[in-house]
From TrEMBL:
All residue ranges annotated as the Calcineurin-like phosphoesterase domain in the record: 11-207
Example of a GO biological process term: lipid A biosynthetic process
InterPro entries linked: Calcineurin-like_PHP (IPR004843), LpxH-like (IPR043461), Metallo-depent_PP-like (IPR029052)
PANTHER family per record: UDP-2,3-DIACYLGLUCOSAMINE HYDROLASE-RELATED (PTHR34990)
Keyword annotations: Cell inner membrane, Cell membrane, Manganese, Membrane, Metal-binding, Transmembrane, Transmembrane helix
Protein name per Swiss-Prot or TrEMBL: Metallophosphoesterase
Region of interest (Disordered), residue spans: 419-444
Domain of life of the organism encoding this protein: Archaea
Keyword Manganese (UniProt): yes
Length: 444
């Protein structure tokens, strides 16, 4: 990290999602979080830690209500709360509620309860901080997401769509996860956007839950399915007298390969027959599906996407904040779990990412096999400080080994060879210039 800060330094994290029913209560990054907080305890600078929403997964507790959720948190993670108390004695810690821990804004008792651990809970949708002669706008970001927006933030009885998804789907996954072969269902909360959930479930079933003998028997057929479709089309052309297949040449090639050639030839023949049947059925089915789709479009049933665009709503929100508050240099948010820096005019939009496991979808190199979802961690801390030429934004990655060796099988690795993800955090960014004139009522 740079050491040229002039004035307060802000360390920002978000989307820890600590807590939840059964397996969701497991915090894979607890040691790393404790080490980070302990490091801040000894920091020798004018600093503040801001937790920008979703510190806790209060939505994911479905069998208890109200302040009882906080009691469970303190009982389950005593070392975390004691470290917060210790760190808070050295530097201020400010917590902004998100959608998953919106209860924090609904009950005033949370303010005093968190104050016992030296955490200042701000029961608001946003807050600002001064950095040099500019300001930073902080918000969690759920208000820009139609599925998680609150019309009356702080109302304990308001439940947006995301609440029901978490209480009925995510929490249920946490309770059932241990029944699987590899305890993977708890990672449902890491699947974003939610439209990917069916593909992820299919992937985990195929590569983890399916009987291994059945999986290894099916893989060769699925790998060669694309070739088989071509062969089925060529066979159809041959039967129609339009084109003649070089059968003798192909047989000679397979014969040179011996037993392997015979196996490949058998698989291709069976696959081609199956592909041919599928093609015959697919033609009328295609026209039916297209007609249904046109009917749905006429009635406007599918005009709204289920998931918020990962960037555009926040770009528009930042533009509005920058226009209303010209002194603002940075719009900082979380919620979407994607660490990002986007230049908006002469300022920047900053996403603080997540400490949860992230899943990266990768299609297989051939065939029609399910995609592979690679797990990784990007435990990132955003550091914002005034420097000589403006306001600097830097990402620090807290080191944690990726769980790939345990959660990605050899088959998955081979099927996505060369397509493994290598996620990187954004580079250092500096907002240059000085503060324009601004109204005197800015909340610092």
């Amino acid at each position: 990290m740079a050491d040229d800060a002039d004035g307060p330094v802000y360390y920002v994290i978000s989307d820890l999602h600590i807590g939840g029913d059964e397996q969701l209560g497991q915090v894979d990054f607890l040691d790393e979080l404790l080490d980070f907080l302990e490091r801040l305890e000894a920091v020798n600078e004018d600093a503040e830690l801001l937790i920008n929403g979703d510190a806790f997964g209060l939505w994911e507790f479905t069998e208890i209500d109200g302040l009882e959720k906080f009691d469970v948190l303190t009982e389950s993670y005593p070392e975390l709360f004691e470290q917060l108390r210790a760190t808070g004695e050295s530097i201020p810690i400010t917590l902004l509620p998100g959608n998953h821990d919106s209860d924090l804004a609904a009950y005033d008792e949370y303010v005093s309860r968190l104050a016992e651990y030296n955490v200042d809970l701000v029961q608001a949708e946003s807050l600002t901080r001064r950095v040099g002669d500019r300001t930073i706008w902080f918000e969690h970001g759920h208000q820009r997401d139609p599925n998680n927006r609150f019309e009356d933030f702080g109302n304990p009885y308001e439940t947006p769509m995301g609440y029901f998804y978490n209480t009925h789907v995510t929490s249920r996954a946490g309770r059932l996860s241990e029944r699987g072969r590899y305890n993977w269902l708890k990672d449902l909360q890491a699947v974003t956007p939610t439209e990917r959930v069916p593909h992820w479930l299919l992937s985990k079933y195929f590569y983890r839950e399916m009987n291994p003998l059945l999986r290894y028997a099916v893989i060769p057929f699925l790998l060669l399915f694309n070739i088989s479709v071509i062969l089925a089309v060529l066979a159809g052309l041959d039967m129609a007298g339009i084109w003649t297949m070089p059968v003798e040449t192909a047989d000679a090639v397979f014969a040179r390969l011996g037993l392997v050639g015979e196996v490949v030839h058998f698989v291709l023949v069976v696959n081609a027959a199956v592909a041919g049947v599928i093609l015959l059925v697919a033609i009328p089915v295609y026209f039916v599906i297209r007609d249904v789709g046109e009917t749905v479009d006429r009635f406007g049933i599918s005009e709204t996407d289920l998931t918020v665009d990962p960037d555009e709503p926040y770009v528009e929100a930042a533009r509005k904040v920058f226009a209303d508050r010209p002194e603002t240099a940075i719009f900082c948010y979380g919620h979407t779990h994607r660490p990002t820096v986007i230049e908006v005019e002469d300022r920047v939009l900053v996403n603080t990412g997540t400490w949860l496991k992230r899943l990266h979808r990768r299609d297989v190199v051939a065939g029609i096999l399910p995609p592979v979802f690679y797990p990784s961690y990007q435990l990132c801390v955003v550091r914002i400080a005034s420097v000589s030429d403006g306001v600097a934004v830097e990402y620090e990655q807290v080191e944690k080994a990726d769980p790939g060796a345990e959660e990605i099988s050899l088959v998955e690795r081979l099927l996505t060879l060369g397509r493994e993800p290598d996620p990187e955090l954004p580079d250092r960014s500096v907002v240059t210039g000085t503060r324009p004139e601004y109204p005197p009522d800015v909340n610092d």
